[in-house]
Amino acid sequence: MIEATDFRDAMSLLTTAVSVVTTEGPSGLHGFTASAVCSVTDTPPTLLVCMNQTSRSHGYFIENKILSVNVLGAQHEQISNTFASKLHSAERFEYGAWTQLQTGAPVLEDALVSFDCEIEHIQEVGTHSVFMCRVVAIKQSAQRGVREKSLVYFNRAYHQVGQMAQVDIA
Questions:
Q1: Are strands 19-25 and 28-34 parallel, antiparallel or unpaired?
Q2: Phi, psi of 94, deg, nearest 5
Q3: Region for 96 from its dihedrals, namely left if φ exceeds 0, alpha if ψ lies in -120 to 50, beta otherwise
Q4: pLDDT tens digits, residue range 32-80?
Q5: CB 116 within 8 A of CB 103
Q6: Which of 153, 149, 55 shows the shortest CA–CA distance to 23?
Q7: Is this structure's pTM higher than 0.70?
Q8: What's the N-to-C CA distance of the chain in angstroms?
Q9: Cα–chain-centroid distance for residue 7?
């Protein structure tokens, strides 16, 4: 049998994008930092988000039935830490500039990309809920370009990944 600590140690070597997942609705305004987000299919556009069932905002996401996945750039390390902290939900949203798309879930204005979603299915697997989310709107960064870098998590630390500018050597 594989021990949970061994599995976590092994998974720490899987590089993942860092996102802030948000919701707003009848249960209020909430958000958390996530690394367990991935594409499921493009027809219909669907992604999945994994969330620990013991998270204090877990029930709010289920009640609101919507969420936005905000993929963070290298400049968002403080926002990632804020949404992973013990701060109250309202205090977390004091960091960054927020807007909305179709569902009303908060969208980080300068995220690399934001996926605005309706939660269609929820599957409980062990300690986590897997949200299957239909993407209803997408907002890509206005600053998309060669110098943009993504915030990723690898080996329990933040790193930056991005396209390096081409340098001509004379």
A1: antiparallel
A2: -75, -15
A3: left
A4: 999 999 999 999 999 999 999 999 999 999 999 999 999 999 999 999 9
A5: yes
A6: 55
A7: yes
A8: 58
A9: 22
